[in-house]
Amino acid sequence: MNPANHRLTNRSMAFVLAGGRGSRLKELTDSRAKPAVYFGGKTRIIDFALSNAYNSGIRKMAIATQYKAHSLIRHMQRGWNFFRAERNEYLDILPASQRVAENKWYLGTADAVTQNIDIVDSYDVDYVVILAGDHIYKMDYEIMLRQHVETKADVTVGCLTVPRLEASAFGVMDTAPDGKITRFLEKPADPPGMPGDPDKALASMGIYVFNWKFLRELLLEDAEDPESQHDFGGDIIPDIVAKGTAMAHKFDDSCVRHSPDAPAYWRDVGTVDAFWRANLDLTDFIPDLDLWDTEWPIWTYSESVPPAKFIHDEAKRRGSAVSSMISGGCIISGTEVRNSLLFTGVHTNSFASLDHVVALPYVVINRRASLTNVVIDRGVEIPEGLVVGQDLKDDQKWFRVTDQGVTLITQSMLNARAAALG
C-alpha cells in the first residue's frame, strides 16, 4: 500500500473561516475582508492558511466568506482554481447566502460550519481542520492531526505562547502537564499567566481539529441553544473543556522553519502597525519567514507582468533599492528606495525617496515625493512633492497616523487633502 494513503490529511478537510472584516486595519479593509488584504509583495493573507493545508496534503477545502467578499472570491477563482474533482480534490467557496433562513447570515464561527453541514458531509471525511484565514505562518497540519488521533481528543487546539498583556485578543488556556486543556477563556480582559512564567500566556491560534462525526453532533446541539453565540472560541471549545477532552497542540511542534534553529514565526497582522512591521520584516538579511522555500511554497495568483526595472543613473536621480523587496512590474525611475516592500506594478518617478514604505499594488509615486514609515493602499497616486513622515502633526491633518508613527495613505484621503488645499 502507498504510504501516502496512511496520511491523516488524506482523510481530512480544511474549513477556512474568512468572513471577518479586520476593523483594526482601518481603511485597508474598507473594500476587502482581512483575509484578502495583500501581504509580502504578491500574496494575500489567506494564501498562508490555504498553502499550509495544501502543502500538508489536504485536498478538500471550504472557505466561508461574509464581509465584502468580492476581492477574496475573485482571488480564489484566479489563484486557487487548480483543484480537480476527478482527482478527488475540492475547493468550495461558501458565501453567507441565507441557506437556513432569509434573515440568517453567519451568526458566528461555529454557525458558519453548521450552515454548511451538508457540504462537509459530501466530502466524506473523518477529520475537519478549522482554520482562521487571517494569520501569517507556516505549519504542517499532518503533525497536529497525528497528535489529535494519538491522544483520542475531542478537539485539539493549536496554541502559541504570547506576552500576557497581549493575550486579551486571543482565547487563552490553562493546561495540565499532559497537554489537556483545563480552562479556556475567550479574549479575557485580564489574561492568566502560565505556571512558572506569569508574564506569558498560552493563546489559541484559532486552529481546531475535530472528528467530523463528533463535531457534527455538537454543532446541531449548539444550533438549538438560544443562549449560544454559535462561536468556536466562545461556546464550542469551552463546552468541550468542561465536559470532554480538549488537548493543546504547541505550534512549536509543527511550525515549518527554514532552519532548525529559526524561531517559530506566527503573526496576526491585524493592525496597521503589525501589517507594516511584518511586511518590512521580509526585507531583513535572513527573514524569520522564508518565502523562498521551494519545499513549502506559498501558493497564490501570479499576475503576468514583466520583471522590475530600474532606470536613471545620475547624481540624486538614480533608480536604486537597498534592503528592499521589489515585485514584478515595478519601475523604479530615478528613485532611492530603502528598507521598503513594493508590491506588483508600483511605479516611482525621479527625485522621489522611499524609506520603510509598504506600497500595495499599482501605486504611482510622482516626482520629488519623500515618504518615510508609510503604508500606501492599492492604486493610490502620490502627488508630486508630497512629504510624509517628517512632521507627524501635519500628517495627522490628512492621513491616519498610528500610535507608533506609521502613516496610512488612501486615495480618498489624498482627494480630501487636495480639495481642502484647493
Automatic annotation (TrEMBL):
Provide the GO biological process annotations: glycogen biosynthetic process
The UniProt site entry described as Could play a key role in the communication between the regulatory and the substrate sites is assigned to Q66, W105
Q: Which reaction does it catalyse?
A: alpha-D-glucose 1-phosphate + ATP + H(+) = ADP-alpha-D-glucose + diphosphate
Please state every residue range assigned to the domain named Glucose-1-phosphate adenylyltransferase/Bifunctional protein GlmU-like C-terminal hexapeptide: 306-409
UniProt-listed InterPro entries: ADP-Glc_PPase, ADP_Glu_pyroP_CS, GlgC_bac, GlmU/GlgC-like_hexapep, NTP_transferase_dom, Nucleotide-diphossugar_trans, Trimer_LpxA-like_sf
List the Gene3D superfamilies.
Hexapeptide repeat proteins, Spore Coat Polysaccharide Biosynthesis Protein SpsA, Chain A
The enzyme's first-digit EC class, named in words, is transferase
The GO molecular function terms of this record are:
ATP binding; glucose-1-phosphate adenylyltransferase activity
E.C. number: 2.7.7.27
Q: Tell me where in this chain the Nucleotidyl transferase domain is found.
A: 14-283
Keywords, sorted A to Z: ATP-binding, Carbohydrate metabolism, Glycogen biosynthesis, Glycogen metabolism, Nucleotide-binding, Nucleotidyltransferase, Transferase
Where is alpha-D-glucose 1-phosphate bound in this sequence?
Y106, G171, E186, K187, S204
Specify the superkingdom.
Answer: Bacteria
Query: Which family does the similarity line name?
Result: Belongs to the bacterial/plant glucose-1-phosphate adenylyltransferase family.
HAMAP family attached here?
GlgC (MF_00624)
| Assembly, per entry | Homotetramer.
Q: What does this protein do?
A: Involved in the biosynthesis of ADP-glucose, a building block required for the elongation reactions to produce glycogen. Catalyzes the reaction between ATP and alpha-D-glucose 1-phosphate (G1P) to produce pyrophosphate and ADP-Glc.
By what name is this protein known?
Answer: Glucose-1-phosphate adenylyltransferase
Q: Which organism is it from?
A: Algicella marina
